[in-house]
Amino acid sequence: MSTLVKQQQELSLKNASVEFMFAYQQRNIDKMLSFCDKEGEVFFQPLGNAGKGTIGELGKAIWLGLIDSFPDIDNTVDAAVAQDGESVRCQVVIRGTQAKDFAGIVNKGKKFESDHIFIFHLNPANKIDSIQISWDHEDFQRQLGS
Amino acid sequence: MFYRKYQPSSLLSAFVECYFIWDSEGPMEEAMIVESPPNGFCSVVFNYGDAYYLQNRKYEKLQVPLQFVSGQSIYSYKLFLQGSIGIAGIVFKPAALATVFQLPVYEYTEERIDLYKVFRQDVVNKYAAQIKLATGKEQRVKSLEAFIMHQYNVQKPEPDYIDTAANFIIEHNGMLQVSDLLRDSYMSRRSFERKFFHKVGLSPKYYARIRRIGYLCNLIAGKKKVDWPAVFHECEFYDQAHFIKDFEEFTGRTPQQYLKENTELANYVEKPKTQSLE
Lengths: 146, 278
What we know:
Number of domains of chain B: 2
Oligomer: heterodimer
CATH architecture of the largest domain in chain B: Sandwich
CATH class of chain A: Alpha Beta
Order of helices and strands of chain B: EEEEEEEEEHEHHHHHHHHHHE
Order of helices and strands of chain A: HHEEHEEEEH
């Protein structure tokens, strides 16, 4: 008797998005970018226009800066929900301890824990070609003593 | 309106919370809207009655597949039913879809996925036909159990610590310290969370919050007046603000609005009895 379950399942939208977050958890930028189209857009919404750029340049620079300034940065994916056939909303808790100044926030050695929403859009090849990230920036600054 | 839960055989009790049959026993005179808060369980459902529709945050009006697998719900949803209701379902323990069928359950969160996309067509057809043509309710339930046994006999699945941890959250209605589960897991936090996410579809902490709200909604189901301080005390909320925040996040309404407007199944049927199959 064989099993009920189909043998092959396509790599899904959620899979790429969740693997991106797991790579972020490992602080492995190259692996994070391997799930992305580097020319795709990233938008760190609370930063306004300064938070808009390409995944391969601005995204990489900000994530490298975060990992450098918060060497224990870590995340927990609470849930991943497909929004339509092309995008996924990930609810993520990000936490870390500040070890260096970051984006104008002077290092006071404080910890933060912040709910983030990542909205990933994927192209037909299942590469992430757009990421929008939002969080409560005032609360983030407050936790770090800024 | 008939609604009853059935206990699984002891062989499957590690994986199956219950089976259920919901049957209008003929066409309804009026359409019905039934809403449900997230309850912390996944399910496999066979519809042998008329088609019905789902409304949730994602879908304004989705015609639900005739047979589907349902992952964790994060938010309340509504079902729009008309004609004859005939629904037979398997309610799985939170990690059991992954343990028994090796399914990536996080893919199914907030989704109803057609069984044909998950299971072999010949098998789905076989059990759908058995359930549709069954002459009695218990025969339908036995077909549901046979559906799982088909897989069980091949895989001989064994629950692991993630099953245990998720079941513990269910048993405690989400009222526990997730850090205690982590300590007993002998895993790193990352490893525990990742495995939990793959098997349950959510993080342990988030899952516990959802389970607690599901339990709370069950406490107030069918009531028109509620002693809210007593309820949020019983559900061990730190304070009223945390209670209202979680309640609004997962049900989309304030507690008072919910009480006034809710159309849970409990408004139409008595609290379901559970019957043994054996």
